[in-house]
Write a structure and sequence with these properties.
alpha/beta
């Protein structure tokens, strides 16, 4: 019997898990998900952007504009950091799958945690100074950066082609 065609690659599969994790975010503007996977393709942790444990989603602002204390930026834990903090196992040597390229603050945590590879999809903030700083640090630290595009569309197309 021949193998089934149009099977998801590992990168597509785990990016799908990052997208699924993003659906847990209550942020009305940007939902980001992350998955950390070891060299044996085992999921070590997942995370999404949201407020810290014990901080009610109803008591803190989701606004993007205004004073620092009136916006989400002072309070939200990013998906990448949540995945690192949620892990019960070491993440050193692992791959991080994330739907949006990590900011400079997450880049520091990624490097310190020993993550060796980042697979990301969106790079919509590529021209911002914080993303430039993030890439500079990650590259200096030897973290491999891999961009894959349109994984949700690709996943749906592969599934549709299976049933033709």
């Amino acid at each position: 019997m021949d193998q089934r065609e149009n099977v998801l690659s590992w990168d597509e599969y785990f990016m799908g898990l990052a997208h699924l994790s993003a659906l847990r975010s209550k942020d009305p503007n940007t939902q980001v998900g992350a998955a950390i996977v070891d060299e044996n393709h085992r999921v070590v942790s997942v995370g999404y952007n949201g407020f810290p444990k014990g901080c009610s989603d109803d008591e803190y602002p989701w606004a993007r504009e205004g004073g620092v204390l009136d916006t989400k930026y002072a309070y939200v834990v990013h998906a990448e950091l949540n995945a690192i903090l949620n892990s019960k196992w070491p993440v050193s040597g692992c791959t991080l799958y994330v739907s949006l390229f990590p900011c400079n603050e997450c880049a520091k945590a990624i490097i310190q945690a020993g993550i060796r590879r980042i697979v990301y999809e969106s790079d919509k903030y590529a021209d911002t100074e914080t993303t430039v700083a993030s890439k500079r640090m990650l590259i200096s630290a030897g973290v491999e950066l891999c961009r894959i595009e349109n994984t949700i569309k690709l996943t749906v197309e592969k599934k549709a082609n299976t049933y033709k």
